[in-house]
Specification:
The complex is a heterodimer of chains A (about 575) and B (about 250). Chain A is of the alpha+beta class and about 575 residues long. Among the domains of chain A are: about 110 residues, Alpha-Beta Complex (Flavocytochrome C3, Chain A, domain 1), CATH 3.90.700.10; about 130 residues, Fumarate reductase/succinate dehydrogenase flavoprotein-like, C-terminal domain (Methane Monooxygenase Hydroxylase, Chain G, domain 1, Up-down Bundle). Chain A has 16 helices and 18 strands. The chains are: A alpha+beta (about 575), B alpha+beta (about 250).
Chain lengths: ~575, ~250
């Protein structure tokens, strides 16, 4: 038996995209009922909270929206959806002002009192608005304050399990949720679902993301036939901490360090970025800096623990202490003083550029299903610029909120198909019903290794084929996991449900990576090591239909900027 | 490697009569956090142990627990700084959901009652210009950002005595907004600060300051609110006698 809930708009996810969508829908029409679903706690869950550096936005008259657009598309290897990229840069100034003056964030000022914008890598102008080096706390806490004020319903520590559709599969009409605390299923009937669960490449053994972001939205969307795009495009951030044996392993040191002039050294003390990108060096885009670091380490020029050195000490201890308080704290915790000494770093899986195919108002190919933020795709193409992530979540969150609140006025509630609900419940319950089975935490480690070794920063067709087989075997083994300990707040059970979604996304990443015979942005193939604009200015689509997985390509529209 | 003995609070209120402590022996790295030690126990023998975490880098404030009698943010506290015998309990002053996970509803309800959202004053158009050396710039609160982890609420004896008391975090937020030049709700905020659930409940014991993982002193914020409140009352008294002060 499941509990029942009816609402107009169901928003899965409570990071920047989810909360902006909720607020915009509510502000536009408070009579439309919005329900938020958070896998963790309201305001604390997801990666917007973890934003360090900040928010890219054109505010200075010497900067231009066109320049921000060109940085975004060039950085993205020209496979961005240019309409989405343009929407991002065009809306960002309005939305960042809204974050300050309506939502209540207070970003850092220059000594003269005007808003401060700092330097980030991969950009032609210093346009990153920030709050120290822990910007996400401010954005999420203030969004949370406003959501509390509106009284919008939020189901906390509740996860989406499956989306529900009409019998013909063309329209999304609800979802099955699981209340993690109580272990109770909830069937939601609604007019529209907004996916804002934040994707998250946690299937890699080194990953920067919040720990609950296990590709739930992508997997749910895939299972009901949503068109996904560019799934091979997984960003690796170049400067993740190296802390063997700790969850801190893979956690980030922010982009602004390179923006401010950090140096990277290999184990032999060489500033290797001079070789890989002589012009921009350490301020090159994330894809290039990550790959360079990975190759140095792979070629035996890494540090003892398999990393490289990040050094900002030459910028002066006082400068680092003043401008990178959060990063220095993070390093001090593991015994390194960032202001005075170098620290070991290694690339880490950070962001999914790929995801649900949307248009600028968040529509997917399925009626009633919308997406925003990291669950969507196209804005960043093959590589995301630092500081464009939180801009994307808030810009597109706001847009989709404004759109959907109008859209639901012409939509009806539809009867749920009970067999879909039963199927969702049976699948989840199966883990609890088993007495004996594999250790899901060990399986998760195996997946992390497969993805890191074979679907990682440097890819090859043979390795990808092997990975696809290994993922299939892990899928079979995951179907035998036993989760003992009851229904209530049982993390082992949750991990089994997470694993199922991670594997779905992992498989799509590997298959798309195999299909793209080209190197571009974050995707690098040893066997196709050049960027092939003649054949691969294309997006790769994947979707499930009745016969299983279908994949195809479509050419990118280059209507604003050509390579 | 460190050998650690964890004594972990286990309790499912619906089915257990009383909490008990379960012992787990785990091995963790030199630089492991207390949260890492919990993950080690989870993986080895306690897959259903309930505890809360998200970012694991000290930003989300989900993983505060009471370790060896004191509130700590477990992702940001190294095992070796506390010891290899760890007694881990849930936060205080809030009900337990299961094991180490608490229901933070009383904490966030108090926060919500404290009017924590900015009420923008009319006419805000562009980014407010706040020069560092201006009176406003100097008077604003410059303490580190709060991560609403609940440690202060858990450690506060006055919250235990008076469950209606807004508590340290909510009052610290109130101070930030009272000093924010963009806010239009100063009067309402100060009425709340001076009210029965407000700042004058605080006995300046400093427990909140001692446990804050971000180095905030809510105690100092509350003291400042008290001074502002007393100043407001004094001015109100003067204007009662001499008539309203002229705007300069």
């Amino acid at each position: 038996m499941t509990e029942q809930l009816t609402t107009d708009i169901l928003i899965l996810g409570t990071g920047g995209a989810g909360l902006m969508a909720a607020l915009h829908a509510h502000w536009r029409d408070p009579n439309v009922e919005v329900t938020l679903v958070s896998k963790g706690l309201l305001g604390k869950s997801g990666c917007t909270r973890m934003v360090q550096g900040g928010y890219n936005v054109v505010l200075n008259p010497k900067d231009s929206v066109q320049a921000h657009f060109e940085d975004t598309v060039k950085g993205g290897g020209f496979i961005n959806d240019q309409d989405l990229a343009w929407t991002l840069v065009n809306d960002a100034p309005r939305i960042v002002l809204e974050l300050e003056n309506k939502i209540g964030c207070l970003f850092d000022r220059s000594p003269d009192g005007r808003i401060h914008q700092k330097a980030f890598a991969g950009q032609t102008f210093d346009r990153t608005v920030h709050k120290g080096d822990l910007t996400g706390i401010e954005i999420m806490a203030r969004l949370r304050d406003q959501v509390l004020h509106t009284g919008i319903r939020c189901l906390q520590e509740t996860r989406g399990l499956e989306l529900l559709t009409t019998a013909d599969g063309k329209r999304v009409i609800g979802a099955v949720l699981l209340d993690i605390r109580r272990g109770v299923y909830i069937t939601v009937r609604c007019k529209a679902v907004i996916l804002a669960t934040g994707a998250g490449p946690l299937m890699y053994q080194r990953s920067a993301c919040a720990q609950e972001k296990t590709s739930d939205g992508l997997a749910m969307a895939y299972r009901v036939g949503t068109h996904l795009m560019d799934m091979e495009m997984v960003q690796f951030h170049p400067t993740g901490l190296v802390v063997p044996g700790s969850r801190l392993n893979g956690a980030l040191l922010e982009e602004g360090l390179r923006g401010a002039g950090a140096h990277l050294f290999n184990g032999k003390g060489e500033r290797y970025m001079q070789k890989y990108d002589p012009e921009r060096q350490e301020r090159s885009t994330r894809d290039r800096v990550s790959r360079a670091g990975y190759m140095e380490i792979a070629d035996g020029r890494g540090t003892e623990n398999g990393g490289v050195w990040l050094d900002v000490s030459h910028l002066g201890a006082e400068f680092v202490e003043k401008n990178f308080v959060g990063m220095r704290d993070r390093c001090l915790r593991i015994g390194v003083d960032l202001a005075r000494e170098k620290i070991e770093v290694c690339p880490t899986a950070h962001f999914n550029m790929g995801g649900v195919r949307i248009n600028r108002d968040g529509f997917s190919n399925l009626t009633g299903l919308f997406a925003a933020g990291e669950d969507s795709s196209g804005v960043h193409g093959a590589n995301r610029l630092g500081g464009n992530g939180v801009a994307e979540s808030t810009v597109f969150g706001a847009r989709v909120g404004d759109t959907v609140v109008q859209w639901v006025k012409d939509a009806d509630l539809t009867e749920i198909q009970n067999e879909q609900v039963n199927q969702a419940v049976e699948t989840a319950d199966a883990f609890l019903a088993r007495d004996k089975g594999e250790n899901v935490f060990a399986l998760r480690e195996e997946l992390g290794k497969v993805m890191w070794d074979r679907v990682g920063i440097v890819r090859h067709g043979d390795k990808l084929k092997r990975a696809i087989q290994e993922i299939a075997m892990l899928q079979e083994r995951t179907n035998t996991v036993a989760a003992k300990g009851g229904r209530k707040f049982n993390l082992g059970w949750q991990q089994a449900l997470d694993m199922r979604n991670l594997l779905t996304a992992a498989d799509l990443i590997a298959r798309s990576a195999l299909m793209r015979e080209d190197s571009r942005g974050a995707h690098y193939r040893e066997d196709f090591s050049t960027t092939d604009n003649a054949n691969w200015l294309k997006n790769i689509y994947s979707a499930r239909n009745d016969d299983g997985l279908k994949m195809w390509t479509e050419s990118v529209k280059l209507d604003r900027l050509k390579p | 490697m460190l050998k650690v003995t964890l004594k972990v609070h286990r309790f499912t209120p619906e089915s257990d009569k009383a909490p008990h402590f379960e012992t787990h022996e785990v091995e963790v790295g030199e630089r492991a956090s207390i949260l890492d030690a919990l993950f080690a126990a989870q993986r080895a023998a306690a897959p259903d142990l309930a505890f809360r975490f998200s970012c694991r880098v000290g930003m989300c404030g989900s993983c505060a627990m009471v370790v060896n009698g004191r509130e700590r943010l477990t992702c940001s506290t190294l095992v070796k700084t506390v010891g290899t015998e760890l007694r881990i309990e849930p936060l205080r002053n809030v009900p337990v959901v299961r094991d180490l996970a608490t229901d933070l509803k009383p904490f966030f309800d108090a926060y919500q009652r404290s009017l924590p959202h900015l009420v923008p004053r009319e006419g805000l158009k562009d980014f407010e210009v706040i020069p560092e050396e201006s009176a406003t710039g100097k008077s604003m609160d410059h303490q580190p950002q709060c991560i609403d982890c609940g440690s202060c609420y858990s450690a506060c004896s006055l919250v235990t005595l008076h469950p209606r008391y807004l508590g340290p975090m909510a009052l610290h937020r109130a101070l930030t907004l009272v000093l924010d030049p963009r806010d239009a709700a100063r009067e309402q905020r100060m009425a709340m600060v001076a009210g029965e659930a407000g700042a004058f409940r605080c006995h300046t014991l400093g427990n909140c300051r001692d446990v804050c993982p971000r180095g905030i002193s809510p105690t100092a914020s509350i003291e400042r609110l008290k001074r502002i409140s007393v100043g407001d009352q004094f001015r109100g008294f003067l204007s009662m006698i001499f008539g309203p002060a002229k705007k300069q």
